Amino acid sequence: MCGIVGAVAQRNVVPILLEGLQRLEYRGYDSAGLVVVRDGKLERVRSIGRVADLTEKCANTQGHIGIAHTRWATHGVPSERNAHPHISKNHIAVVHNGIIENYEALRTRLTAEGYEFTSDTDTEVIAHLIHSHYARGNSLLAATQASLAELVGAYAIGVIAADNPDQLICARRGSPLLLGVGIEEHFIASDVSALLPVTRKVVYLEEGDVVEVGRHSYQIFDATGKRVDRAVQISELSNESVQLGQYRHYMQKEIHEQPQALADTLESVCNSQSLVPGIFGAEAAATFADIDSILILACGTSYHAGLVARFWLEEIAGIPCNVEIASEYRYRTSVPNSKALVVVISQSGETADTLAALNHAKALGHSHTLAICNAPESALVRLCKLRMLTRAGPEIGVASTKAFTTQLAALFLLTLVFAKQRGRLTAQQEQHHLHELRHLPGAVQKVLELEPHIAKLAKQFAGKHHALFLGRGLHYPIALEGALKLKEISYIHAEAYPAGELKHGPLALVDKDMPVISVAPNDALLEKLKSNLQEVRARGGELYVFADANTHIRAADGIHIMQMPEHAGYLSPILHTIPLQLLAYYVALQKGTDVDKPRNLAKSVTVE
Ligand code: G6P
User: Fold this and answer.
1) H or E stretch covering 436
2) How far is it, in rounded angstroms, from Cα 377 to Cα 1?
3) Which end of the chain is more exposed for a tag (fewer CB within 10 A), N or C?
């Protein structure tokens, strides 16, 4: 949603802050800003647009302490006056990620106390609140702690004061924040990738932590105000993993990283001879024995991964499975089942709706919870009893790609573990699936070789305004995901339907201007799908078919075939996703959109 960086050092911190912001830009990109202390005064620079615009404006800015922010608007339109940092009485500056729920009441009170508001944001109340406590003689730490006690909502904040050039205060509750430990310098950031040029030593802050950060030392206080020690960890993230390298966009890079991401996610399993529940956590064996159904909760692309998993879980493991959009589940009256395993899927582990849905499920009495997540230190992982980490590495492109396919791999493992536990997997079948999983990265690599053909095909989409995606069974969620990718980054209106539903409505839309993209795996539904495709062709619709090897769908006038190198059985959804990701990417290139940072979207949505 928003990205925070802060630093206190002997050197000028402005280049560190700007580099950090650049690396966090995927979290929000409608405006950016920073503030430093210079000669006893706060010097703030803000800019609407990208970090590059801010960098230009910072040519003459310098300081040894500063905080910076890149924003994705929630309260108040994207504008310079709403950009962070927010300042109270030229004295206290604050950057904030999250949402303050009681900001209206606080704003009314602070206005009555004489504070003047210059933005529409909820963040500005934090700056004034801290100022009001600081002005009463409290230290910056005490003033921040007292202010946090009055806030309702989620936050990660960084705070500095004009008359305190050696101290930065930061705190987190519900939004991510970590501390970077350098030599005679310290940093804060929303995500470790922002700090890699300056340090790998990080302290992941816990919920409710408040930290007094100085140049030589730092002190952490927990939610109760008690001084605590937290482990310093060495981040394994390599600097290269967050750099673009030979690629034009992060999305392209991340599409190409999928063989490695899958190999990493499956590493422990593929190196062993059999599947054990322990891959989901120490308590998994005992927990799974008590489970009679599965409830999957997620948003966006992660929800689509859940939809694929439902097919696997019911068909292979024979376990009933429901999949719900997290933002819907949290607000509807559902019937809890204490024997259900609640599986939350999330790339970031910080999506507000998914976190709230998990908490709602727990409040309803669900105690069996499993997180499938790409962010090991995230709130979602901490809140669940069980976990399986996807090892996709940092995903920077807003449109999710490698996180999705690694989620699918993790969910397939979950299916196999349940199938085995329920006596539905023979030793021979287990070996077969393990063999297929070992082959998966190589199979994905072969699909990536279709890239030049798809790039050519994409030219035919650039002038279109709408597109229809069709799939059946296990591949209907892949059609949904293909449509989502296309709309996210190329802004072409795209819808997905189970192919059998075509005749019940969407067929009315089909004409020569409506490209119809179909996922055609070589499975039991192929013959039915072929008839659905005829229905499209008969109405003059242009068909683009992503067909498995040996499907015998022939190219003809108005039927374009993209042949997949092989058929992957149950793992076919993973392979079929790849060309649809590439199609969206190359259509977006044709249209000249901002592929990695599509308009109006954000990578992780930490508000409702
Ligand atoms: C945002 C992103 C999507 C993502 C969704 C869920 O909308 O733009 O790409 O699928 O959030 O995110 P999560 O991190 O929970 O998987």
Assistant:
1) helix 427-448
2) 17
3) C
Closest ligand 1 atom to Cα of 302: 16
- Residue 536: partners with Cβ closer than 8 Å, 6 or more residues away: 470, 502, 507, 510, 516, 543
Residue 351 CA, closest ligand 1 atom number: 15
Cα of 348 vs centre of ligand 1, distance in Å, is 7
Distance from the alpha carbon of residue 599 to the mean position of ligand 1, in angstroms: 15
Q: Give residue 549's pLDDT.
A: 78
Q: Find the distance separating the first CA and the last CA of the chain, reported in whole Å.
A: 11
Rounded to the nearest 10°, the torsion over CA 62, 63, 67, 72 is -10
- To the query of whether residue 2 is one of the catalytic residues in this protein, the response is yes
Residue 423 clears pLDDT 70, i.e. is over it: yes
* Domains assigned to the chain: 3-242 (3.60.20.10), 250-446 (3.40.50.10490), 451-591 (3.40.50.10490)
Ligand 1 probe mutation, 605, 606, 607, 608, most atoms within 8 A of CB:
605
**One-letter amino acid identity for 329?**
Y
Q: Which residue has the tokens 């979950």?
A: 414
Catalytic: 459?
no
Cα of 299 vs centre of ligand 1, distance in Å, is 6
| Nearest CA owner, ligand 1 atom 7 | 300
> 525 pLDDT exceeds 90?
no
Please, are residues 129 and 138 in contact by the beta-carbon 8 Å criterion?
Answer: no
For the cut 80, the answer to whether the pLDDT of residue 394 exceeds it is yes
Closest ligand 1 atom, CA of 298? 15
| Pocket of ligand 1, beta carbon within 6 A | 299-302, 346-348, 351, 354, 398-400, 601, 603-605
**Least reliable range by pLDDT among 166-180, 313-327, 578-592:** 166-180
